[in-house]
Amino acid sequence: MQNKKKVSIITALTLSASLLMSACSGSEQGSSSEKPSGEGKDLEEKIVVYSPHGKDILSKFETQFEEKYGIDMEWLDMGSQEILDRVRSEKNNPQADVWWGAPSVNFDQAKDEGLLAPYEPSYAASLDEGFHDPDWNWSGTSQTPEVIMYNSKELSADEAPKDWDDLLDPKWKDEIIIRYPLASGTMRTIFSAMIYRDFKDSGDTAAGYEWLEKLDANTKEYAANPEMMYNKVAKGEGSLSVWAMPDVVMLKENKNYPFEFIVPESGTPVLTEGIAVVNDAPHPKAAEAFYEFVNTPEAAKILAEEFYRIPTRNDIEGLPEWITETEIKSMDIDWTVFQEQSDAWMKHWDENIKSGEKEIKE
To answer: DSSP characters for 54-65?
Structure first.
C-alpha cells in the first residue's frame, strides 16, 4: 500500500516530529477495496484509533479487524494523558474515531468536556455498573488491580508485606523502589488511594500525607521509568515495589523475572481501562464496528492470554488461572474525587514529602 497509512496520518493528523516515530503504518494485508463476505458493506473505508496499548496489541487487532471488515485501520500509539490532550485540541476538527485504552478518570474528563459520543454496545448487559459510564460515553474493557510486588528470591510469601500499612514497617527501609509517581498513572492511583482512605470520611489529607512521608522514609529511590524499577527489583537492589498486577504476572511469565504479588488484604484500587467513540468522529459506523470487535469474548480471551488484561465483561469463560484464582478486594473509591484532587495531592507530595536527596534515577 506504499506506506499509505503513514502518509495519511501525516496529512490528516498533522503529527509533530516527536510523534511521527510513534505512528505506525501497520500491516499491509488489508485493503479497503476488498471487503470480504460483505462484512464492511455499509461502513466507511477507514478508521483512526488513538491508543496507549502499544505496538503488539494494536498490530494484532489491526490485522484481524482489516481481515474481517476490509476497513483500513490507522492507529497512533501514545500515552493516555497525551491522547486526552490531543482529542481536546482537535475538538473542533476531530481526527480520531475511537479512543481505545485509558483509565476511566481520563474518559470522565473527556466526557465533561464534550469530547465523547455516547454508544451503548451490544454486550452492555455483561458489564457491571462500575464498568461503564452511566450515559455510555465510555465502557470498560479491562480492569487493573494494584498490588504489592516482591522479589521472590529475596523474600518468601510469608515474609512479604500483606497490606499497604505493612510497607511502613522500618524493617523495609531502603528495600522499596518505586516508579516516579508524577509520571505514572499507576503510581498516582496508588498514592491517591492512600490519601483517599482517610480523606473520604474526614475531608482532611493529613493522615494520607503522613502515610506517604513514612513510605518515603522506607523508599530507596524513585525510578524514572518502569523498566528501571523492574530491573532494580529483579537484581535485588530493592526487594519491594507497588505496581499493577497484570504487569507483574507478565514480567514473571514472559521475562522470567523473580516477581510475585500480594493483593493487599484491606483492599486495593482497581483501575478500569475503557474505550470510547470520539464525538463527531469522521467514521462513526466504522468506529462502532471496531468498538464491538475488540470487545468480543474472543478478543477478551486474546487480551487475557497473550497480553495479561483482565476483562471487565462477566461472561468470559476459560480465562487463565492467575485471573480466576486471585481474589480481588476492590477499594470503594469515588473516582470523581480522584479526578478533582489527584493533581493537587501529587503536587504536594512532590514539593513537600519526597525526600530531596532521593534523586529520580534516570
So the answer is: HHHHHHHHHHHH
What average pLDDT score do residues 175-196 get? 91
C-alpha cell at 275: 474505550
Whether 59 and 27 have beta carbons less than 8 Å apart is answered as yes
Quote the pLDDT of residue 23: 40
Q: Which of 174, 215, 207, 9 is nearest to 95 (CA)?
A: 9
Residue 361's pLDDT is 60
DSSP state, 268? Answer: B
Provide the 10 A C-beta neighbour count for residue 44: 18
Per-residue pLDDT band for 359 (boundaries 50, 70, 90) equals low
For residues 221 and 361, give the distance between their C-alpha atoms in angstroms, rounded to a whole number: 7
SS3 call for 179: strand
* Amino acid at the residue 348: H
Nine-digit cell string for 206? 493529613
Cell numbers given for 122 = 451490544
DSSP line for 102-131: EEHHHHHHHHHTT-EE----TTGGGS-GGG
Buried b (16+ CB within 10 A) or exposed e, 218-240: bbbbbbeebebbbebbbeeebbb
Closest CA to 194 of 183, 182, 180, 205: 205
- For cell 485509558, the residue is 102
- Report the amino acid identity of residue 312: T
Q: Return the bridge partners of 260, or none.
A: 150
DSSP string, 3-54: THHHHHHHHHH---HHHHTTEE---SS--TT--GGGTTTTS-SEEEEEESSH
CA distance 36 to 70: 6
pTM value is: 0.75
- From the number of C-beta atoms within 10 Å of its C-beta (0-12, 13-18, 19+), residue 62 rates as buried
Chain centre distance of CA 262? 20
% of the chain surpassing 90 pLDDT: 73
DSSP-assigned letter for residue 182: G
Mean per-residue pLDDT of the chain: 87
